C-alpha cells in the first residue's frame, strides 16, 4: 500500500503519546451504529480473517460549528469577510479533536494491540491497517462479503460497537457500514459513424448557435458559444487550476483525450499528454497507451475519466488540469472470498486532499450513490470534510445523478428500513449542503431538462432510462441559503408528492448545464456519452474561468459557491422552464420559472457571471 507522506505524517506517534496517560476504567461495548444492508446487495458469508482493511477512524472535531460560521461568512457576498478564505492551518486548528478524545482513543487502540497508526494533519482522522479478525475484535462485530447485483463485492458489516465511553469521541469508523460505491453518473455511450438529427428536430433559429450546435453530438465549440466563454482569454493559467476525481479504477486514456482534442480543440491537444495524474492509495495513473482489447472489453475503466478529461481540457485550455485517481473498490473480482481492496475511496480522497496545502480552486466530481447506501454518520462526516474545502476557498461541484428521483419506475424507489415503503431516493453527495450539485439539460432553443425514455438510440441500439438527478435529502436539513426559494417551490406544489420526499431537506441540484450526447472519444473511436457526469465537468470548467478573471484582478476565487449563487450569482444563469423528469413511476417534480429541483437556477451565462463576480 502506497502511503502519501503528507497525510500519514507521523506513523508510530500514537505509541509514544499514550505512555503518559493513565489507564481509564474500561466500559462495556455497546452498538454505535446499525445500518441496513441496502437493496441489491446480498451477503455471501463471513469475510476471511486475514483480509486487510484500511480502517479510518473519524474523531469528533472540537470546533466544527465555528468552522461552519467562518465558512458562511467568507462565502456570503454581503459579509465583510467575503473571500477571506481560511488557510490550511486555520482549518486544521478548528477541526482538531480535543486532547481527551485523542488520549482515550489511543488507549483503546493500544490495549487492543494496535501499535502503528497515522494521523491526518488535523489529527481528526486516525488511519490503521489491520486484518478483519483484529477489526472484528476492536469493533465487536463480524465482517461479511457482500455482493451487488452487478457482481462487484465489498467487505462490510451491518453494525459495529465501541466501548460506551468512546461513543461521544468517535463519529464514524469506515469501512464498516457504508455501501456507497461512488458509481460514475454517466448514462449512456453511443458509437456512431455520422452526426445524426432525429426526425422532426428543429435546429435553433439563432444562426450563431445553429452553426455550431447539433443535438447529436454536442461539441466543445457549441458549449463555448452557447455559454459565452469562446472569446475569453485566460490571464492567470497556472495560478488558476482545476481538478477532477476518478474512482473505482477509472483512468483517463491519454491517446483518446488527444484524438478528441485534436478534432474539437486542437490547440489543447498536446496537453492530453501533460496534464497531471495524481494517484492516491494505489489509484491507477492516467494511461499513456491506448486501451488494450482486453481493457476495452472490461468496458468501464475509462469512459467517465475520458469524459471528464476531454471536457475540462477542451473548455479550460491553457489551464493546468489535475486528475485525482483514488484506489479501492475494483468493479469486478476474480475470487469472491478475497476482494482485492475494499476500502472507502471517497473518504480516502477527501482526506488526501485535505492534507494538501495547494489544492486546485475548482474540483469536479461525477460520482455518487443513493444516500441510503451510506450511514448518516458517514455522510455527515464526509459532508463536513467538504465544508473544510469550501472554507479554504475551493469550489466542489458534483453531478446530481442520472436516475431522476431515484429510478425509472417505482420498483427502485423504496426505503431501506426493512419496510420497503415507496419513496423518492436522494443521492449522495449532491444531498450534502456544502457542495454545488449540477443537473443536466438538452437541446438549445430553449434548453430543457435532460430526459430520455428507454428505447432506441441513434445507434439503433436499445438504451436505458436517463433523467437528470433531482431531490431532497433525508439526512441534511435545508441550508439557510435555500430559504429564499425552496419553501416557495414546495408551497406551489400544493401537496403534490406529499410524503414521498423530505420537505425540510437540502434540495438539489443548484445549477445545470448540457448533459446529453457529448462528442466523445473512447477506445480509439469517436462516439457520444451522456449524463450529469458530463454537465458537471462542463460547469466546473466555466466556474474555473470565472476564477481566472477574479484572480487576475487580485480578487479571491469564488470558493464555496452556494451562498453567492442563491443571493446574487443566480442572475448569471439562464432559467430552464420545461422538460420531463418522469421517474419513480411519477411525472417528477415540475420544471418551473425560477429555481426548481431539476435544473436549479439553470445554465451558465459566462459574460453575466463575470460581471456579477467582479462586483
Ligand atoms: C445584500 O446587500 C444588498 C445591498 O446592500 C442588499 O440589497 C441585499 O438585500 C443583501 N442581500 C442579502 C441576502 O442580505
Ligand atoms: C445568438 O446566440 C449568441 C450566442 O449565445 C448570442 O450572443 C446572440 O445574441 C444570439 N442572437 C440573437 C439574435 O439572439
Ligand atoms: C476496441 O478497439 C479495438 C481496436 O480497434 C477493437 O478490436 C475492439 O473491438 C474495441 N472494443 C470495444 C469494446 O469497442
Ligand atoms: C423488501 O424487499 C426486500 C428485497 O427485495 C425483500 O427481501 C424483503 O422481504 C422486503 N420486505 C418487505 C417487508 O416487504
Ligand atoms: C436504424 O434503423 C433504421 C430502420 O431500420 C434505418 O433506417 C437507419 O438508417 C438506422 N440507423 C443507423 C444509424 O444505423
Ligand atoms: C415524459 O416523456 C415520456 C416519454 O417521452 C412520456 O411517455 C411521458 O408522458 C412524459 N411525461 C410527462 C409528465 O411529460
TrEMBL record:
SMART domains: Pro-kuma_activ. One of its GO terms (molecular function) is serine-type endopeptidase activity. It catalyses: Release of an N-terminal tripeptide from a polypeptide. Residues 1-20 form the signal peptide. The active site is at 304 (charge relay system), 308 (charge relay system), 533 (charge relay system). Its cofactor is Ca(2+). Residues 217-615 form the Peptidase S53 domain. One of its GO terms (biological process) is proteolysis. The lineage of its organism: Eukaryota, Fungi, Dikarya, Ascomycota, Pezizomycotina. Ca(2+) binds at residues 575-576, 594, 596. It is found in: Secreted, Extracellular space. One of its GO terms (cellular component) is extracellular region. Secreted tripeptidyl-peptidase which degrades proteins at acidic pHs and is involved in virulence. PROSITE patterns: SEDOLISIN (PS51695). Keywords: Calcium, Glycoprotein, Hydrolase, Metal-binding, Protease, Secreted, Serine protease, Signal, Virulence, Zymogen. Binds 1 Ca(2+) ion per subunit. Its main location: secreted. It is an enzyme of class 3 (hydrolase). Its EC number is 3.4.14.10. This is tripeptidyl-peptidase II.
